[in-house]
Amino acid sequence: MTEISLTPETRICVTGGDGFLGRHLVSLLETSGYRDVFVPRIEDYDLKDITDIRRMYDDSGAEVVIHLAAVVGGIGANRENPGRFFYENAIMGLQLIEEARLRGVSKFVALGTICAYPKFTKVPFREEDLWKGYPEETNAPYGLAKKMLLVQSQAYRDQYGFNSIFLLPVNLYGPGDNFNPASSHVIPALIKKCIDAADAGAESITVWGTGKATREFFFVEDAARGILLATELYNDPDPVNLGAGFEISIRDLVGLIVELTGYRGRIEWDSSKPDGQPRRMLDTARARERFGFKATTDFRAGLRKTIEYYRSTLRDRS
Ligand SMILES: NC(=O)c1ccc[n+]([C@@H]2O[C@H](COP(=O)([O-])OP(=O)(O)OC[C@H]3O[C@@H](n4cnc5c(N)ncnc54)[C@H](OP(=O)(O)O)[C@@H]3O)[C@@H](O)[C@H]2O)c1
């Protein structure tokens, strides 16, 4: 297997490059001097369709693919779309990797997710524990579809010498996140609820679950930096966690967002709604050891930027 050294001229294709994480990554690639970054938009290339995938490879001439395109969402969206989240994420990845191999693409970077981990993984989650159980039920179809790309990456490396790496980011947040209540993740959902309730003078907001579950949150600009470092420096079969390496309960998270948004009303917990996975926090040592990545954004500072983004760009339009 030949390992590619990236140069400013390397042709890099970022699927999902117009999404939340994708925009931050594409901007980082450009400021880092990469001059040939191709972003296939869904209206031009539906990546579930093999003919569109072939056309995308023809048009981009990609030497490196960073595959971010996916259908994603919070617990509600996962519960409503288990079939779609399984099929679309699996078929996009499987066909993109197969076609990349057939065309001799030099490197494929596949994005997994923390939702691939077993429901009751020992905390902090270590990559060695990925196969020690079934994922939490509400996000298992999404998590497992993504996990198949790890199997494919390792099998293709063994049989064909194809250089595909697999990264597992934890829950992301930051400016540009999805604030649509039908599909948003917990941080943008809470920010929107608190700010909208404060604007409307509402006496209370309702939050899903008991508040006892814990989560780790990873600032999107840190995630983009981790992915770029792995793209440049990492060429091994082992999956790698990408995260910030801390854990916070949903109850404490709500308290923090209430404080930072200035919402003054009551919090009502709807314990008939699911908590999702009981605890989540990654062991991030491998990313540090193998390609020198460490998250640097302070959580409060990241939350402030996200709140400011919602206030300045979306509040009046929602
Ligand atoms: N957000 C998180 O907390 C998180 C955590 C761990 C891992 N990840 C992974 O990170 C990646 C990026 O997530 P994100 O939060 O940035 O998601 P996102 O904002 O929804 O972006 C996903 C992108 O994929 C595109 N896409 C979806 N289906 C497509 C198709 N059939 N053909 C072409 N493009 C398609 C979307 O286009 P449209 O917008 O036009 O539909 C969108 O631009 C995903 O692989 C996700 O699994 C995310």
Brief sketch in words of this structure:
This protein is α/β, with parallel strands linked by helices and 318 residues long. The protein has helices at 20-31, 50-60, 75-80, 82-103, 140-160, 186-200, 220-233, 250-261, 285-291, 299-314; strands at 12-15, 37-38, 64-67, 107-111, 164-169, 172-173, 204-208, 214-215, 218-219, 240-242, 248-249, 266-270. A 6-stranded parallel β-sheet has the order 2-1-3-4-5-10, with helices on both faces. It has a two-stranded parallel sheet with strand order 6-9.
Descriptors for this entry?
318 residues; alpha/beta; Rossmann fold; six-stranded parallel β-sheet; two-stranded parallel ribbon; 12 strands; binds NADP nicotinamide-adenine-dinucleotide phosphate
> Low-confidence segments, ≥5 residues, pLDDT <50?
none
Cα(first) to Cα(last) distance is 50 Å
Largest sheet: 6 strands, parallel
CATH superfamily of one domain: NAD(P)-binding Rossmann-like Domain
CATH classification, class level of one domain:
Alpha Beta
Q: How is this structure best described in words?
A:
By secondary structure, the chain is an alpha/beta fold. It has a domain at 12-171 and 217-245 and 281-295: NAD(P)-binding Rossmann-like Domain (Rossmann fold, 3-Layer(aba) Sandwich), CATH 3.40.50. It has helices spanning 20-31, 50-60, 75-80, 82-103, 140-160, 186-200, 220-233, 250-261, 285-291, 299-314; strands at residues 12-15, 37-38, 64-67, 107-111, 164-169, 172-173, 204-208, 214-215, 218-219, 240-242, 248-249, 266-270. A six-stranded parallel β-sheet has the order 2-1-3-4-5-10, sandwiched between helices. It has a two-stranded parallel sheet with strand order 6-9. Strands 7-12 form a two-stranded parallel sheet. Strand 4, helix 5 (140-160) and strand 5 (164-169) form a beta-alpha-beta unit. Helix 1 packs across helix 7 (220-233) and helix 6 (186-200) packs across helix 8. The longest helix has 22 residues, at 82-103. It is globular. The protein starts with 11 loop residues before the first strand and ends with a helix. The mean pLDDT is 95. Bound molecules: NADP nicotinamide-adenine-dinucleotide phosphate (NAP). NADP nicotinamide-adenine-dinucleotide phosphate binds at residues 16, 18-22, 42, 45-48, 68-72, 92, 111, 113, 169, 171-172, 178, 185.
